[in-house]
Sequence to fold (104 residues):
Amino acid sequence: MPMPAVLSQTGTGAVYWTPDWMQNPFVVGYSLSFNTGTATLDVTFDSVNLTSANATWFSIVALGAANATGNYTTPVQCFRLNVVTATATSIVKVTFIQSTYGGS
Fold:
């Protein structure tokens, strides 16, 4: 059974999650939760090297102090939670579940 990936960002900044983009069908469920600031959930089709800024990111969700859930069905290389504005103690959490990730 696949395990959820739970990531959080305190204050502004970004965290990344790489799905298994070879899964067929490709389905990733996500949830975002926070109470202050603004954030985006972005995807890239580029190969991601986190030490470089060469990836082109596309926003799929833009939020301002709200919660959101959804599914993403287009294979991508990486997801990014990008917290744009926040207080120093704001915590934004994103959870990803890919139903076939790690399964047999």
User: Anything to note?
Assistant: The first strand starts at residue 5 and ends at 10.
